[in-house]
Amino acid sequence: MTDHPLVRPHAQVHFGVFFQGVNHTTIWSDPESGSQTDFASFERVVRTAERGLFDAFFLGEGLRLRESRGRLHDLDVVGRPDAVTQLAALAAVTERIGLVATQNTTYNDPADLARRLQSLDVLSGGRAAWNVVTTDNAWTGANFRRGGYLDHAERYERAAAVLRTARAIWDAFPDAGDDVSRVEVAGSALRTPADVAIDPTTPRSPQGHPVIFQAGDSPAGRDFAAAHADVIFSAHGSVLDDALAFAADVRRRVVAAGRPEDDLKIFPGTSIIVGDTPADAEEKARWVRSQQVTPATALSIVGNVWGEDLSGYDPDGPLPAHDPVVEELGGERGSATTGARTREIAQKWRAISEAEGLSIRQLVIRNSGERGFVGTPSTVAEELTRWVRTGAVDGFNITPWIVPSGLDDIVDRVVPELQERGAYRTAYEGTTLREHVGLREPLTRRAAAADVEAPAA
Amino acid sequence: MTTPFFIGLDVDGAGAHPAAAVASGLVPAELVSGTRLARAVRQAENAGVTFVTFTDALLPAAPGAASSARLESVTRAAFVSRTTTAVGLVPQAPTTYPEPFHLAAQLASLDIAAAGRGGWLAGVTRTPETAQAYGRGPVADVEREARDVVQVVRDLWDTWEDDAVIRDVATGRYVDRDRIHYPEFEGESFSVKGPLITPRPPQGQLVVVAAAGDVAPSVRDERLVDVTLVGGADVATAVAAAEAARAGSPRAGVDLEVVLDGADRTAAERLAALDAAVPAGARSPWGTGALRYEGHAAGLVTLLEGLAQAGVDGVRLLPAVLDEDLPVLARDVLPALRAARLTAAPQPGATLRDSLGLARPANRYDARDAVAVA
Ligand SMILES: Cc1cc2nc3c(=O)[nH]c(=O)nc-3n(C[C@H](O)[C@H](O)[C@H](O)COP(=O)(O)O)c2cc1C
């Protein structure tokens, strides 16, 4: 392993928790696994996270149920609540933890969306965030008045316009006095049939307005985050070299956008598995992977790449000998990888499984086994600290492998180890999410702020 | 057993009178604070109110005025879902411009968080300014649009059968795809594929409340509205309107604006002061066609008893100023109605449907139900 300098020797580890609403990482089949829908499950997870002094509790969004080749995908956890509504209820049973709602910009109107997010921010006392996503498929559009109407590039253009409009709506309300400004945006910027004009009603929260997260990985997505977001929710949370390369890339983009390089915080999604000994932890991790990838799930994932129903195949046998029947992924809709080249994936997978002698299921387990941290509480704490102090990340957005108990050993065992190392807070120092994450003033309110450095020449 | 007379109460902001915020002297941050909201709803629950409504509109009552501060209603209702245990929670959400798919998920999520106490006051928007806020042209026929939106929201609430989550370890299936349905709704101005992203709410269908005339009759032979609210310049008109509304919905109640005598001012004096304080340019005048009561608490008790005797199912009270009128309602009006066995406080754990005497509907897509009925 390369030794990386600890460029931020006093940096602290930050945690968020990603309550996955639709996924195959949450092991629903385990007897310990509770309801994925009952409010009590969400409440237990958020309370545990708050006990563990986490920055934030995070909900994703997907506006159409996943399908495999035209039929509902039936193997994974599915059926999530509307994020803002659920977080508003959770705001009433928590005091400090941040509440992050993933909301897409393609199928929401800024008038509604900005108001709902700001309502959450005000009711929670300044703890809300908006994870801006663009929903990269037209198929979701069938659930909405507008239909599937924007391609990839246009989605980011609209995203920027929606975010600008939302900020204008939030900033229209004065800190004091009675004059609320009217917000007007050309319809062409928002891709609406007519021009948009709004008189806002939502006052500012203690943190001004919701913190902005962004999740997206393409160059356009990274540039969007660099220009507009406070936190980027990345997928680079398993391999340190990869995380460092990602950090260097986004920081370069942040500086190019005229912001200080530490202005955008990096929180990759990851998972943490701890055991009493390193061997314990490894064995538990192996067990977790094998539970996540059931025989049916393995066949479904491979079948998606091959573009056909492989449920008749033996999951403990080899990959299909023939090439995929489709050019591009698309059979499984609603997952992040749609659009990749199937033949390339198939060739790579075949080479790995032949070299390592892996069955279909073993291969899928191997592919999904690259994520996260495995070890004793002490070795994991050591590693997480190293990640933030080398500057690879600012925090981690943890996906528990079981709900609702999946954070217990992280809060009870890893957090104290981090605290002993001086790498984790021992109490919330502020009341707002902006304060927990260590963010500057909202971007739109910085004109007079002294801490904005001039862009690097 | 007959269903008790229901008491709805609007808990929006400072009160229903357009000068309530100004008269209360609340700054915007206080006006919309979660603490204040939770306190008002708890007070209503303790007083035995059947359900609270959260009146809402996207645009301010007086454009440009900070005293028009207001938070979105479903978010408000969700917030208090965990600070209460018995009272029904009925946000007003419009049918005219928002996405029906989002509304269906938001309201289903409210019902889940509230353990079956959710409702929906389905509103319509007649101002062209709201169309402009969405960057759209005005909808000409808002009642027809309301019908389509209520219809598709109801369809979406049924898209998951109650037992769609099977968690079948043997086959690895989390859901039974045969118990999740695509409504493929085709309305007159939009279509929705489905299914919903959120499972069927605890009540099966949230209680849909609407003002008489806001939702056009369905082209399908289904009752779209559970509780219709009517107005009326006098009691006889209101009673007749409620009677007429029952043809289209199982329950009909009267919207009733109330201004009660205070400790040191009569209702008439209070109202005169409020009317004089209405901000310039206010969009919604006091007196929107609801029945009105001004006076002392005992007179209101008599009026409510009279409405019940005339066959009206309940009322929704619109207090002029929440901080002044709610304490009087809680102390002098609601206990008297309960003592007379006219009303009953909702029980912790009861759904709003239970409190209103409405059955939990069968799922429209459940083939097994259809067989059982045939
Ligand atoms: C870590 C991560 C999490 C994401 N979570 C969601 C989500 O919850 N809902 C959603 O619609 N899209 C989600 N996305 C998708 C992105 O918003 C975006 O639409 C997609 O990545 C395509 O954009 P890109 O090409 O810039 O990556 C996520 C993406 C990443 C990288």
Automatic annotation (TrEMBL), chain A:
<dbReference type="GO" id="GO:0016705">
    <property type="term" value="F:oxidoreductase activity, acting on paired donors, with incorporation or reduction of molecular oxygen"/>
</dbReference>
<dbReference type="InterPro" id="IPR011251">
    <property type="entry name" value="Luciferase-like_dom"/>
</dbReference>
<feature type="domain" description="Luciferase-like">
    <location>
        <begin position="15"/>
        <end position="392"/>
    </location>
</feature>
<feature type="binding site">
    <location>
        <position position="218"/>
    </location>
    <ligand>
        <name>FMN</name>
    </ligand>
</feature>
<feature type="binding site">
    <location>
        <position position="156"/>
    </location>
    <ligand>
        <name>FMN</name>
    </ligand>
</feature>
<dbReference type="GO" id="GO:0004497">
    <property type="term" value="F:monooxygenase activity"/>
</dbReference>
<keyword id="KW-0560">Oxidoreductase</keyword>
<dbReference type="InterPro" id="IPR036661">
    <property type="entry name" value="Luciferase-like_sf"/>
</dbReference>
<keyword id="KW-0503">Monooxygenase</keyword>
<dbReference type="InterPro" id="IPR051260">
    <property type="entry name" value="Diverse_substr_monoxygenases"/>
</dbReference>
<keyword id="KW-0285">Flavoprotein</keyword>
<feature type="binding site">
    <location>
        <position position="152"/>
    </location>
    <ligand>
        <name>FMN</name>
    </ligand>
</feature>
<dbReference type="Pfam" id="PF00296">
    <property type="entry name" value="Bac_luciferase"/>
</dbReference>
<dbReference type="InterPro" id="IPR016215">
    <property type="entry name" value="NTA_MOA"/>
</dbReference>
<feature type="binding site">
    <location>
        <position position="102"/>
    </location>
    <ligand>
        <name>FMN</name>
    </ligand>
</feature>
<comment type="similarity">
    <text>Belongs to the NtaA/SnaA/DszA monooxygenase family.</text>
</comment>
<keyword id="KW-0288">FMN</keyword>
<protein>
    <submittedName>
        <fullName>LLM class flavin-dependent oxidoreductase</fullName>
    </submittedName>
</protein>
Automatic annotation (TrEMBL), chain B:
<dbReference type="GO" id="GO:0016705">
    <property type="term" value="F:oxidoreductase activity, acting on paired donors, with incorporation or reduction of molecular oxygen"/>
</dbReference>
<dbReference type="InterPro" id="IPR051260">
    <property type="entry name" value="Diverse_substr_monoxygenases"/>
</dbReference>
<keyword id="KW-0288">FMN</keyword>
<keyword id="KW-0503">Monooxygenase</keyword>
<dbReference type="InterPro" id="IPR036661">
    <property type="entry name" value="Luciferase-like_sf"/>
</dbReference>
<keyword id="KW-0285">Flavoprotein</keyword>
<keyword id="KW-0560">Oxidoreductase</keyword>
<dbReference type="GO" id="GO:0004497">
    <property type="term" value="F:monooxygenase activity"/>
</dbReference>
<protein>
    <submittedName>
        <fullName>LLM class flavin-dependent oxidoreductase</fullName>
    </submittedName>
</protein>
